[in-house]
Amino acid sequence: MLRALLLYLSQATWARKIVTGWGVAWRVASRFVAGETLNDAVRVVKELNERGFTTTLDHLGEYTTNDEEARSSAKEAIEILARIEGEGLKSGISIKLTQIGLAIDPGLCKSNLESVMAVAVERGIFLRIDMEDSRFTETTLQLFEEMAERFGPEKVGVVIQSYLYRSEQDAAKLMARGARVRLCKGAYKEPPEVAYPRKPDVDAAFDRLTDILIRGSQDSGSPPVSANGRRPPIPAIASHDDERIDYAVWAADQAGLPKVALEFQMLYGIRRDLQDKLLAEGYPVRIYVPFGGEWYPYFTRRLAERPANLWFFVSNLFKK
After folding, report:
1. Looking at the whole model, is its pTM more than 0.90?
2. Residue 281 phi, psi (nearest 5)
3. Are 31 and 299 in contact (CB under 8 A)?
4. pLDDT at position 14, please?
C-alpha cells in the first residue's frame, strides 16, 4: 500500500510542487542525486572511477511535452557524451525515451535517438536505453532493436523489468541477438494485468531472468566489460537485494561465467557497503549517477523501493 502511494505521488504534479518547495527534500534527495549540474555529476564520476567503479550518467527528466523540449534533451545528452570523452571518464550514458519525445511523437523520438546514438558511437561510449512504464515497453524494445541493427548490438543496451509478465519472452529474444541487458525489478505502478503484484513473484522472475542472461552471455562468447569500463558485458544485474545478488553470483559460478562477464549495477548513494563488497570480490560494479533539476520523480521512486530510504527522509524532516 505504501509503495503504491509513493509511486502515485511520483507522478502527481501537486505533490511535486509541495515537496520540491521543502529545503529538506533536496537535502535528502542529494544522497541519491549527484547534483543539479553536469559539473556536479562529473565530479562524482571522477571520485567513483578513482575507487574502481565504472558509471553511467543519467540526466534526469521524462515525459517532455513539446518538440523543443525533446530536441533540447537530445542536445543535452550529446553534451554529456562530449564531457565523458573530454574528461576521460569510465562511463556510459542512460537515456529515457519519453525525455526525447516518445510520448509526443515516436518519429521525433527516433530521430533524436539516432542523433545521440551517432555521437555515442563516434566517441566510443555505450548508450543504455532506459525502460519506463509498460505503456512504452513495446515501442522501446522496437527502437532498441533498430539502433542495435544499425549501430551494432555492442554499442547500445536496453533494460528488462522482472515484474512484467512478458519479460522472460523478451529476454529470450534479446539474448538470441546478443543484446546487452540491464535487469531490474521495475519501479513504476503497474496493473496486475501486466505485472506481478506480489514481491515474491517479482523476485522469482528476477532469478529466472538472471539465468536467461547468463546463458545468453555464454552463447555469445561471454564478452567481458571493456578495458576502459565504458562497454558493459551482456548481463547487468541491477539490484540492491542481497538474495538476488547472491543468486546471480551462485548461478554464474555454476555456469562457469567469468566474473568480468557479469556486471552488477547499483544506484548512487544506495547500498554503498554492497557496492564495495562486490568490487573487492572482483566483479565489475557500475554506479548509476543521476543529476539534474528534474529529481523529484526519481527521488520518490527511490523512497518507494526501500522503506529505509523513506524513514531516512522522514527523520530529516525534524532536523534543522
Report:
1. no
2. -80, -5
3. no
4. 44
The pLDDT value recorded for residue 13 is: 55
Out of 58, 128, 130, 271, pick the active-site residue.
130
Side-chain half-sphere exposure of 302, counting CA atoms within 13 A: 25
**CB atoms inside a 10 Å sphere around CB 183:** 24
Contact in structure between 181 and 158 (CB atoms under 8 Å): yes
- Cα(119)–Cα(302) distance, integer angstroms: 31
Q: Go through the chain and tell me how many residues it has.
A: 320
Distance CA 57, CA 253 (A): 30
Q: Which residues of 233-246 are buried (b: 16+ CB within 10 A; e: fewer)?
A: bbbbbbbbbeebbe
Average pLDDT over residues 182-203: 94
Residue 130 bears catalytic tag: yes
**pLDDT tens per residue, range 4-62:** 544 544 454 544 444 444 455 555 666 788 888 999 999 999 999 999 999 999 998 77
Residue 229 and residue 244: Cα distance in Å, rounded? 24
What residue has cell string 520523480? 297
Note whether 77 and 40 are within 8 A (CB).
no
Given the residues 58, 128, 133, 182, select the one marked as catalytic: 182
Tens of pLDDT, residue by residue over 130-174, are 999 999 999 999 999 999 999 999 999 999 999 999 999 999 999
